[in-house]
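pipeline/complex-builder :: batch 7 item 3
reading input block
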Amino acid sequence: MIGPSFPAVLAAAQGGDEQAFAVLWRDLQPAVLRYLRVAAPVAAEDLAADTWISVIRGLARFRGDEQNLRTWVFTAARHRAMDWHRQAVRRPVASLPVELLAARAAPDDPAAAVLEAQSTQAALALLAELPPDQAEVVALRVLGGLGVAEVAQIVGKRPGAVRVLAHRGLRRLARRLEAAGLARGVTR
Amino acid sequence: MSDEDGLVADMHRLLGFLEVAPPVADPDTVERLLAGRLDPSDVPPGYGAVARLLAAATAPAAPEELAGEPLLLAEFKAVARSHPPTLAPRRETMPSRLASVKVAAAVLTAVLSIGGVAAAATGLLPGQAEQAAERAPSTTGAGAAGRGQVGEAAAAGLDAAAKQGLCEAWQAGQGADHGRRTDAAALRELAVAAGGADNVAAYCKDATAAGGNEAATGPDAGSPAKAGLCRAWLSGQGDHGRRMDSVAFQALADAAGGADKIAAYCKDAAPGSAGAQGPGSSSPPRRSAPSTTVSPPSGGPPADPGSGGQGQGGPPTTGS
């Protein structure tokens, strides 16, 4: 979060100030990239860049506070992810990314990796294993730092539904990690 | 052999999974956990590993996550140089307007097909609008060429049919308890197009009665828009604290001079009087952004941020 200086930073960036834009970018990029690692893992880097390019083009017209900007940027990122999935469906099977399949079959269990090492990548991989609607909501709330209302706005669901999805997602993660802990004889 | 080992491990995991009772945690605690505001000592039993996972997921940025900076800054410079801020929006106006018109049209369909009463009574509108908007992308390709002229019309705001439909929906909700209606995506679209909830009445005035835009007088206390918003605000006070997130209420807050001043501002809102109001002429209707509530068209880059994003009832920025 940028905080009290946000309006000034935003205004400067909208006026074409490169350094001001860099401040916005550095603040949000890690969260955007991580969200996309959950929402569309193999394409996350590209989709993050696409997201920012569209943000750059629309920035001059943006009006709002910092939370609005976050909501806007994550909305853009989500659209990129959805487009990507839509296209992925149409993509011939043969061109399905092999590395994705390989990653899925990898012996390294992200749950174990999360338990043993505080690995960001493993944590994101585990989030990505949730049912898509739960993964999305948990990722937006946790990684995006967004509230129930903002997430509801982004995903087009009621706040109550967003809350339920997030809670279910966490419960599922808790069970998954607990199970992994038991399977490995690791105490929680 | 290694296959068997894998199988055994899988079975272990599966059995372990089945044996674990679903942990219970009270909703408030889970909310705080999600928001990253839960003290480690308050983490409920069974959620310790989840708390660690969330901490790992939100760890400080790694250098490689910021590796793309030079590229993005170069892009930023290129855009800023070739399109000075005041001109930048023009470049994308057509496609994004076109996109927003489609969303508006889809939303309109939802508004009209549900009917005001049902929507008001059940608050169904956002969901329906969303579904309609989800359908919109599928028509994008076919409709785009034929809708060129609609896009042109939209340069002045929503296209005429969408505007009229939305205005009718808005007016229908005026008298009723429309605590939820102003939250609805469609009506938020309207507020954005009007340049703020305060301007909706003025904006809609010439949609229904083909009259000229009269002089700007500023939001006045008797304005139906204000009265309507105030009623909606008051009716919603009990049941949710996050109402301020809607564009309409944001505009109300702006007009009141702050969210905490709404109560005072609304106190003197005399409902009913339908006089001329609204700073209509000083704020040419801003083109409607696909509200973030409404899933936007699938289209290319211009579809979302290009649309002006949140546009929380802000002033028009697309000079034409």
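note: Chain A touches chain B through 86 residues (CB under 8 Å).
queue -> next item
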